[in-house]
Amino acid sequence: MIYLDNAATTRVCPEAAAAAAEMMTNNFGNPSATYRLGREAKAAVDEARGKIAKALGCKPAEVFFTACGSEGDNWALFSGAEKMRHSGKHIISSVLEHDAIRKSLDKLEKLGYEITRLKPDETGSITPEMVAQALRDDTILVSLMLVNNETGAVTDIAGVARVLKAKNSQALLHTDAVQGFLKVPFRADKLGADLITISGHKIHAPKGIGALYIRSGLKLPPYLHGGGQEQGIRAGTEATPQIAAFGVAAELGFQQMPEAVKRMAELRSHAIERLTKELDPIRIIPGGAPHILSISLPGYRSEVLMNFLEAREIYTSRSSACKKGGRSHVLEGMGLPPKVIDGALRVSFSRFTTLEEVDAFCDALKDAQKSLFPSLG
Fold first, then answer.
1. CB-neighbour burial class of residue 311 (10 A; exposed 0-12, middle 13-18, buried 19+)
2. Where are the domains of the chain?
3. What HEC string does 4-46 produce?
4. What is the C-alpha to C-alpha distance for residues 11 and 6, in angstroms, rounded to an integer?
5. 185/256 Cα distance (integer angstroms)
6. d(Cα 170, Cα 137) in Å, to the nearest integer?
């Protein structure tokens, strides 16, 4: 099997799996319990929080566990809007966002908020200048993803933060960094965002765990109500196996990030070099993240290409795994022609991806062009 859909999810690394198993079978206490087993579980949760905070570049007290990236995005938008509602009802985002943001914005719009959805430049990114032009006195929230999950386009969130500061804006700044965490360098304490969403299953931790960074001093209203977990603002018994695994995966990812990013960028460049030389037509869709390569064979059908590749146990995707059918709203938002969108494939790497796997993908795509579309190839 050759797995090249790491932007959708990653294989859980052995160390993270072992940490989860330990919490499920031995250290299985409820972290809220006051006896020894509970205290040991709480200590494991605190240890994992510290590891994630170090990788994220913030204080442990600024990391709040969630069930997934989508929960973090929903929490940031709905609670951010609630906190700021008396100061205005204007929100800035983009047409490129994950559905967790897009659908939350749709609901906020129905609740009376006004949403400005910015369109990207030719690189697929939203620039700080675009935000500056859209900014108003009643803007209360800006939400832009750090790395686009379909193209890998990187948005200058630090630049957006500088714009907000220069304009003396009251707006909170949120970034969905699910695809950016441990893939592009940033530190929460330097980025300038008030709220940052991350997710475990993108960095070789299990599914079902994520975190929301909330800047110190920002009293964000709770999204889930109940018990007093997570400093009283995110109710629910902590998912200790996933949390422990998330901590281990973040620690390993942070330690190996420089070499992993370099290797993934080299694999991406190698794939681009081979594909542009050996396939015609081929279009490389702009993107700056090292682990995502978005390509298109205009005139081809991505579903047919994916089926051909799957028959060889090579797994890629056409767009976000969360999008069921229909054209990519990201590629449409970039203004790409229908033929380019319909022939698009997303290839995404991890630190475990090898050169041999990338070459096998390139070979298979060449074979697909010859056997499936001889009149086009």
1. exposed
2. 2-8+257-372, 14-252
3. CECCCCCCCCHHHHHHHHHHHHCCCCCCCCCCHHHHHHHHHHH
4. 8
5. 12
6. 8
Running DSSP on this structure, what letter comes out for residue 60?
Answer: G
Cβ–Cβ under 8 Å, residues 301 and 344:
no
Residue entry with tokens 């390509």: 295
Prior bond to 298 cis, omega within 30?
no
Give, in order, the Cα–Cα distances in Å from 207 to each of 292, 308, 376: 20, 28, 40
Cα–chain-centroid distance for residue 185?
14
Cβ–Cβ under 8 Å, residues 301 and 343:
yes
**Other beta carbons less than 10 A from residue 83's beta carbon:** 16
Q: What is the pLDDT of residues 269-328, one digit of tens each?
A: 999 999 999 999 999 999 999 999 999 999 899 999 999 999 999 999 986 555 555 689
Which pLDDT tens digit goes with each residue over 239-255? 999 999 999 999 999 99
Residue 361 has pLDDT above 80, yes or no: yes
Residue 184 DSSP label: S
Q: Check: CATH 3.40.640.10 for 14-252?
A: yes
Joined tokens for residue 217: 């001093």
> Where does residue 182 fall: left (phi above 0), alpha (psi -120 to 50 degrees), or beta otherwise?
left
For the domain spanning 2-8+257-372, the CATH number is 3.90.1150.10
Whether the per-residue pLDDT at 377 is higher than 50: the answer is: no
- Distance between CA atoms of residues 69 and 331, nearest Å: 22
* Count of Cβ atoms closer than 10 Å to residue 17 Cβ: 18
Q: What is the pTM of this model?
A: 0.96
CB count in 10 Å sphere of residue 126: 28
Question: Any idea which residues carry the catalytic annotation?
Answer: 322
Q: Do domains 2-8+257-372 and 14-252 have the same CATH topology?
A: no
Give kind and range of the element (H or E) at residue 347: strand 344-348
φ, ψ for residue 94, nearest 5 deg: -145, 170
The tens digit of pLDDT for each residue in 95-143 reads: 999 999 999 999 999 999 999 999 999 889 999 999 999 999 999 999 9
Q: Do residues 351 and 127 lie in contact, with contact meaning Cβ atoms separated by under 8 Å?
A: no
Residue partners of 352: CB distance under 8 A and separation at least 6: 11
